[in-house]
Specification:
It is a single chain. By secondary structure, this protein is of the alpha+beta class. The chain has 15 helices and four strands. The protein folds into three domains: about 5-50, no CATH class; about 60-115; about 170-295, Leucine-rich Repeat Variant (Alpha Horseshoe), CATH 1.25.10.10. Helix content is about 60%, strand content about 10%. Strand 3 (about 150-155) and strand 4 form a beta hairpin. Helix 9 (about 185-195) packs parallel to helix 11, helix 11 runs parallel beside helix 13 (about 250-260) and helix 14 packs antiparallel against helix 15. The longest helix has 19 residues, at about 35-50.
Length: about 300
């Protein structure tokens, strides 16, 4: 492997996106090339700097895209509406004032278009205002509002918007149902992003722990682990973090688990990190384990 080829793969290497053969070839090259090892260190510093300065889209951007997409879909009552929708989006995003957020808009539009046309349902029992008994409803999306509360859009026989704080039992119940919607990963991510601020509630904390253990979408697990930061010293949370460190398939989730675990260095911490160092095939995760062990004055060993 040449230096040029190796350096072009460093970002993929840090994110654990290389195949086994590619990663092994890169590691062999790094062992014999000091220049590429320095390049890897610079790449790590750059990645960390980007993480520290991540920006959030405007709070109303998601809602605006949903509204525009629904209006467009309602107008285009003909076959091949997906093609017409993308044609319209291309015209809108080509405008000069939209170009700075063009890439983000395309990603969000694709995600929401799939959401809007998906046939899945998430039944929630809700009493009808007219007294006709329970009706089947679907949580369509959730969103924090400017006042610090929560807005939930639900599909029934018509769309209905509920507003309230996370402390509101009805709002919390619906968010918990949305966070468990197996048919809609986007809805789970959005719900988890709101629920993470309510981890003081034992019920919400259990949902976060369950998602961290079992949700197949890495984005949901990352939101869950973020919500558990303030509880990293609790035995139940540390037990799940230990399982995640040794078993989660996503290196980003494993790295976050290391960061939370080392905040409270209890008995068995060194042994857990040594085991992770021995078992993990991601170089960046291994480096984080080595760093944590050195800070604990524990043996890194030969693996």
């Amino acid at each position: 492997m040449t230096c040029e080829s190796a350096r072009s793969r460093l970002s993929l290497f840090l994110y654990g996106e290389l195949s086994f053969d590619e990663e092994e070839a890169l590691q062999q090259h790094l062992e014999s090339c000091e220049g590429c090892r320095h390049a890897l260190e610079r790449e790590k510093v750059w990645h960390e700097a980007v993480d520290l300065h991540a920006t959030e889209p405007p709070a109303n951007l998601l809602a605006q895209f949903r509204q525009d997409l629904r209006a467009r879909l309602a107008e285009e009552r003909r076959p091949h509406r997906t093609f017409a929708l993308w044609e319209w989006l291309g015209e809108v995003l080509n405008a000069p004032y939209m170009r700075p957020i063009g890439a983000l808009a395309l990603v969000l539009a694709g995600f929401f278009a799939a959401r809007l046309t998906a046939p899945g349902v998430s039944p929630v029992s809700q009493a009808d205002n007219a007294g006709r008994g329970p009706t089947a409803t679907q949580v369509r999306y959730v969103q924090p509002d400017a006042s610090g509360g929560v807005r939930i859009v639900m599909d029934e026989t018509r769309q209905r918007i509920l507003s309230g704080s996370l402390e509101d039992q009805d709002i919390q119940r619906l968010l918990l149902a949305a966070a468990s919607d197996g048919a809609d990963p986007g809805l789970r991510v959005e719900s988890m992003d709101i629920l993470k601020s309510g981890a003081d509630s034992s019920e919400i904390r259990q949902v976060l722990l369950q998602a961290l253990r079992q949700d197949p979408v890495a984005g949901v697990r990352l939101k869950a682990i973020e919500g558990l930061k303030s509880f990293a010293a609790e035995p139940e949370v540390r037990k799940v973090l230990s399982e995640v460190l040794l078993a989660d398939e996503n290196p980003g989730v494993r790295t976050q688990a290391i960061d939370l675990l080392v905040q409270h260095k209890g008995e068995g911490m060194a042994g857990l990190l040594q085991e992770a160092l021995y078992r993990d095939n991601n170089e960046y995760v291994r480096l984080r384990c080595q760093k944590a062990l050195r800070e604990m004055n524990a043996s890194v060993g030969t693996f």
